[in-house]
Amino acid sequence: MADCMTITGLILNLAGVLLLFRYGMPFRVSSDDGERVVVPAGPETKKLDKRYEVIGYIGLAAIVIGTLLQIFAVLGVK
Question: Which keywords appear in this protein's UniProt record, sorted alphabetically (predicted)?
Answer without folding.
Answer: Membrane, Transmembrane, Transmembrane helix
